[in-house]
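User: I'm curious whether this sequence folds into something compact or stays loose and floppy. Could you predict its structure so I can see for myself?
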Amino acid sequence: MAVASKAVNAGVSTATGIEFQKHCALYILFENYGKLAGKKYFICIEHHDDVMFCHQGPMDELTLVESYQAKKSSDKWGMSDTFFDILTKMAKVGLELEEDPVSKSPTYSHSLEFLTNHAINLNLKQAKPKPSINVLINEANCNVKFIHLPQEIQDELNDRIKDKVAPETKPLAHINHISLAFIDLPKKHSSQLNQLVGFFKNSVNKDIADASAAVNLLIDLFRKVETTLNNGNISKLMDESKRVTSVEIENAISIINNNQKAYNFWRVEGKEISKKLSIPIFEQQSMQQSIQDSFDFFKDLKQAEHRKVLKFTQDNKDLFHLAIDEVDCIEELYKMFLKTYSTPLSNKHLKAAIVAAYIETRESL
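Assistant: Here's the prediction. I'll summarize afterward.
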């Protein structure tokens, strides 16, 4: 049974100071984007743990949860009480995940990773003549599983965690799921964003014109769920209000990519389209933004008129095989739509929607 925990997200009171967690989530997403494409998963922020990547099977059952305790620091981590507290919380998260009532596959497993952008230096002094034992986790040795630590350090950490959970021993069963990892993110917030922008271009879309806007759009997805109250202050993975799903992420990236295609297309064909569709000069400057807005509206169930334009274009995709010139094809779609439907959309927004629908439909052929 899930129990209330002071560690779980209680809403806006914990909304500040967790930008690093969102940046870590994006870093992990970009790093694994090629492997995640086409897979079903969801990401949680401040729910059981700081960041969780939850992988799903064909019936939405959980197959794997990768749970991250993501902490930035200005100093090295070491064998301190603060560090022991974090490992204790992670062990308890493992127990919470095991007991979470969400549907799980027979092969379900979870991992627990402590993620930080500063070095972890585990130094254990021993009685002489035994030498001290030292493990350094940094950019040169970026991930070490608990079970691969020297046995003396494992024993010390086990004892420290046992002291904090006694007489409750169940969390100790999850210590072996823990790993310690260094993430290559700078210390400053602005520098982290700059690195994520470059990472997005290298991993997701190398041709993107405004990768900064793309990263901010994805961060906004996480902001929507990070401050959502856990029901009764209890974390449950069945709570869909705390999820950013793979569908939402792919839709966002689709919009980002379509915006890039729209930018390129309007830069090359905008003047000719403006002539064909009689778009006044004063409207031409804002037309590109209206086209980009249309991609958002196509995915919004409340925007019936824009969705109607997209469906009309998709239903008439045979025209794409007949037309020789793209601008002529757009003009014909616009004329055909006006003959078929009346719409409350303004002329400007209808023309923008037709251009956006043309681009989206063309890319799906």
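Summary: The CA atoms of residues 19 and 42 lie 19 Å apart. The longest strand covers residues 104-116.
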